[in-house]
């Protein structure tokens, strides 16, 4: 399958492939994803067949803007406030699905709610504007399931499956979107992600609780193995063994690891988020017997980074 620079022509070809029921990989500001026409049950089936994605894991439908999203799900005041604050951007809203939305049941895993997101990425926007029906975008997950943040990751893992891969270079954010459910009385945080919890609370004007991750119906996609490299992880490392790879953070990384990648020598959490998945991937292939991970402050984006690291450590 071809990896194409995302020229105007390649984007048109991708839109045509989606219309034919094929699947296409393309970048967003968070991670790359596999796109299919969310109203085409057969195309969606191909996305599910792509990896060991469990059937009950619902997908996010991607749209260019609020107006497009409203054709699939009604927005209440809270949903509108959040979308106006963060769209286009790395926030997914879980909303009641319109009965006549036309979205394939497989997309929503049979739920009467659906997740919607308008990505802030020129290539994704150009594609979504051409293809009036939404693409859904589960990021293909690699061996052990680290989300792809570069077209080469996608190519390495998906083989012939997508009709094409639009190459947009590395993703600016590197962490998946924050997922907020806006149904029922109070909004709930279903997944930590690229929009920090505090920013959402600032818009809502009140704290937002993280839904219990063991409640499968609340967020069926919160599967631990989503983020797991094959090499075991040792968290909160302050020193390192010679057979370990070191995932460092900040200016004072300990010496002596087999190999070291610093998420951000300047201790910048946004830079660390951008590099997280690619770094885990590289260290996973380093031949080290363990990946030692330095502590990352649990504030702002650090909360989501630590969430991914804990999942990666737990999944083994
Ligand atoms: O940044 C992202 O969100 C990336 C890019 C490609 O947009 N996509 C992504 O998709 O991470 P995925 O499939 O790995 O995660 C979708 C998340 C899961 O946690 C899933 O449970 C949740 O969204 N979700 C989707 N529909 C839902 C629904 N109706 N109710 C509750 N959670 C839902
Ligand atoms: Mg995922």
Structure description:
It is an enzyme of class 2 (transferase). It is found in: Cytoplasm. One of its GO terms (molecular function) is tRNA binding. Keywords: ATP-binding, Cytoplasm, Nucleotide-binding, Nucleotidyltransferase, Transferase, tRNA processing. Residues 8-195 form the YrdC-like domain. With 316 residues, the protein is an alpha/beta fold. The protein has 2 domains: 3-210, DHBP synthase, CATH 3.90.870; 233-313, Threonylcarbamoyl-AMP synthase, C-terminal domain (Rossmann fold, 3-Layer(aba) Sandwich). The chain has 10 helices and 14 strands. It has helices at residues 8-19, 41-50, 66-70, 77-86, 105-108, 122-130, 151-158, 197-204, 269-284, 301-314, and strands at residues 3-5, 24-26, 33-37, 60-62, 91-96, 113-117, 135-136, 164-167, 178-181, 188-191, 233-234, 244-248, 259-262, 290-293. The chain has a 10-stranded mixed β-sheet with strand order 1-8-2-3-7-4-6-5-9-10, with helices on both faces. Strand 9 and strand 10 form a beta hairpin. Helix 1 crosses helix 6 (122-130). The longest helix is centred in the last third of the chain and has 16 residues, at 269-284. It starts with a strand and ends with a helix. Residues 216-226 have low confidence and may be disordered. Bound molecules: threonylcarbamoyladenylate and magnesium ion.
């Amino acid at each position: 399958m071809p990896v194409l620079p995302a020229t105007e022509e390649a984007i048109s070809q991708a839109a045509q492939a989606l219309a034919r029921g094929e699947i296409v990989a393309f970048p967003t500001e968070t991670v790359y994803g596999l796109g299919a026409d969310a109203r085409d049950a057969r195309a969606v089936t191909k996305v599910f067949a792509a990896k060991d994605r469990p059937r009950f894991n619902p997908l996010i439908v991607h749209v260019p803007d609020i107006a497009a999203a409203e054709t699939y799900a009604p927005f209440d005041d809270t949903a509108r406030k959040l979308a106006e604050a963060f769209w286009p951007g790395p926030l997914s809203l879980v909303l009641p699905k319109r009965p006549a939305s036309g979205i394939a049941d497989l997309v929503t895993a049979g739920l009467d709610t659906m997740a919607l997101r308008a990505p802030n990425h020129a290539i994704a926007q150009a594609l979504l504007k051409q293809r009036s029906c939404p693409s859904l975008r589960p990021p293909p997950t690699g061996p052990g399931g680290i989300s792809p943040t570069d077209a080469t990751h996608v190519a390495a893992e998906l083989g012939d499956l997508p009709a094409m891969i639009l190459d947009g270079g590395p993703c600016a954010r590197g962490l998946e979107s924050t997922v907020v459910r806006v149904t029922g009385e109070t909004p709930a945080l279903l997944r930590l992600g690229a929009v920090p919890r505090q920013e959402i609370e600032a818009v809502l004007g009140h704290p937002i609780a993280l839904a219990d991750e063991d409640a499968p119906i609340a967020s069926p996609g919160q599967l631990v193995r989503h983020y797991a490299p094959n090499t075991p992880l040792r968290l909160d490392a302050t020193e390192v063994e010679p057979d370990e790879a070191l995932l460092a953070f900040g200016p004072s990384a300990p010496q002596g690891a087999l190999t070291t990648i610093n998420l951000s020598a300047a201790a910048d959490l946004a830079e660390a988020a951008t590099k997280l998945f690619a770094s885990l991937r590289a260290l996973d292939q380093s031949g080290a017997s363990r990946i030692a991970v330095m502590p990352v402050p649990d504030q702002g984006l650090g909360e989501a980074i630590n969430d991914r690291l804990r999942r990666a450590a737990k999944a083994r």
